[in-house]
Amino acid sequence: VLAQCMGIAGLVTILWWAIGYSLSFGVGNAIIGDSAYAMLKGVESGAVGAGYYWISDSMWAMFQLTFAIITPALITGAFAERFKYSALLLFTALWSLLVYAPICHWVWGGGFLGSAGVLDFAGGAVVHVNSGVAGLVCAIFLGRRKGYGTEVITAHNPVLTMIGASLLLVGWIGFNAGSAGAANDLMGVALLNTILAAAAAALTWKIVEYIEKKKVSLIGMLSGVVAGLVAITPAAGFVDPKGAVIIGLIAGPACYASSVWIKKLLRYDDSLDAFGIHGVGGAIGALLTGVFATVIVNPLGKDHSIWPQLAAIAWTFAWSGGMTLLILLVCKVTTGVRVSQEAEVDGLDFHL
Q: What is the pTM for the complete model shown?
């Protein structure tokens, strides 16, 4: 898994330099950017064009690269232990250019969703709904892990999970607060909202888990934290602290239901709940941004409505789901997608 994430980081960085940034933030049209920034041409220190406020394009390109990397990396949680490495690289390259770049442009790069008034502060639709839907398609396409549903599959190391979730929380502050584009009041509100929503979702996840199982788990509480972080991502710079707490309180049980009850009912094997937490949490956050956005926090919240938010969710579901399936079919007939049964039993560390 670490090798998959490292491979994605390296590959997406080069693709972002070559054409990904340009397709995402080039002027282009309402659907896709152009090639004006190919190989980051014209993106040097001091230039201001595609970025926000006084941030230089070079800084903006680097900041947005982190979003471009994390989005396909999130998908890997859905197909842990089953995906061939060669297929992963091909899938990531195609998905980054054909799925991530267009949706990023639609919302943040001057495309039709952003022009229609969609509010997505740090990636509710662009990152979380996008990766969550893709993860669900991958999990269903690949099928369940050997022993899933018949053998007990436990977390490898809850302590390492705690460390990882803590690193996520710190990084998430950078994503959400950094999306303000400046060290200003909006950044402070986004940071505050991020922490509040994470705490609220951890609390309600824990309550639901205790009601069902009569005990709480560290993995469950950490899942709640991530659910809250996901849900507040689109809203962080648009809602007040009260709105952030409400979003977190809703996200906890909603993501619990989708990650535990619905997954068990439908019997798909989404190993790390990419859809249950990121897909569902992102959709909840995107929708509730249209409910709780306030002009007091951000002038862009003046004409907030749930209808553009619903449109963004629907378009992201349709494009990400359909294109992910098509890309998987391409991978299947070229590299193949699923590892052999022997590799799955031995573990991918021995069959990279």
A: 0.95
- Token pair 């309180």: residue: 249
- Mean pLDDT, the chain, rounded, equals 94
Determine contact, residues 44/53, Cβ cutoff 8 Å: no
| Tokens of residue 340, six digits | 């052999």
Give the C-alpha separation, 59 to 130, whole Å.
Answer: 24
| DSSP string of 87-135, one letter each residue | HHHHHHHHHIIIIIHHHHHHHHSS-HHHHTT---SS-IIIIIIHHHHHH
Expressed in percent and rounded to 5, the helix, strand and coil fractions of the chain are 70, 0, 30
Span 153-181, pLDDT tens digits: 888 899 999 999 999 999 999 999 999 98
**DSSP state letter for 204:** H
Cα–Cα nearest to 227, from 209, 211, 215, 239: 209
Would you list the DSSP string of 262-297?
Answer: IHHHHT---TT-IIIIIIHHHHHHHHHHHHH--TTT
**Distance (Å) of CA 56 to CA 33, 45, 53, 182, 185:** 19, 6, 9, 11, 20
| Dist. CA 202–CA 228, nearest whole Å | 7
Q: Which residues contact residue 164 at a Cβ distance below 8 angstroms, ignoring those fewer than 6 apart?
A: none
Report the amino acid identity of residue 138.
C
Give the Cα-Cα-Cα angle 126, 124, 82 (nearest 5 degrees).
70
Residue entry with tokens 């584009």:
181
Q: Under DSSP, is residue 26 helix (H, G, I), strand (E, B) or coil?
A: coil
Segment 105-130, tens digit of pLDDT: 999 999 999 999 999 999 999 999 99
pLDDT tens column, 185-230: 999 999 999 999 999 999 999 999 999 999 999 999 999 999 999 9
Give the span between the Cα atoms of 297 and 189, in whole angstroms. 8
The two three-digit tokens of residue 146, written as one number? 């050997």
Tell me how far apart the alpha carbons of residues 191 and 172 are, in angstroms, rounded to a whole number.
9
